[in-house]
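**User:** You know discrete backbone vocabularies at least as well as I do. Would you mind producing a protein record, from residues through to fold? Write it directly below this note and I will take it from there.

**Assistant:**
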Amino acid sequence: MNEAARMDEQIRGILPGVKQGTLRFWGVWFGRPRDNIHQLSECDAKDNLLVMRFNQGEVLTVWYPKGLIVDASKFQISEAQRVRWEWFSYGSPKTEENRFFYDFNKTGKSVVATTNVDGVQPKMRPKRSLPAVEIL
């Protein structure tokens, strides 16, 4: 059993009791710090991929995850090769044109962040020294 499958089992074992809160990826907040609450509702693993679904249709995909800490008070994945957060524009119809993403790829000594968010671009300066995924 690989690390993603072990994490899937561990997360499923405590659902729905997983920590709820605001997401942060290598130090980059999704929204303002502690401004929104995300609740993990499903988890699945395939090969070295961990896919987590949240209560408002958001999807968090983590490639080659390592170092899971999960309970009612903490959620953290220490390392990953890639992290992608997808969501639909809140308050809009759930259509492809309203689907947005943050995508983080670990390359060499850094993490490269991209997004398809239109309008005001978020400040995305990931720090490789911080956890790949956190719910705070």
Q: What stands out?
A: Residues 3-14 form the longest helix (12 residues). The mean pLDDT is 93. Residues 3-135 form one domain.
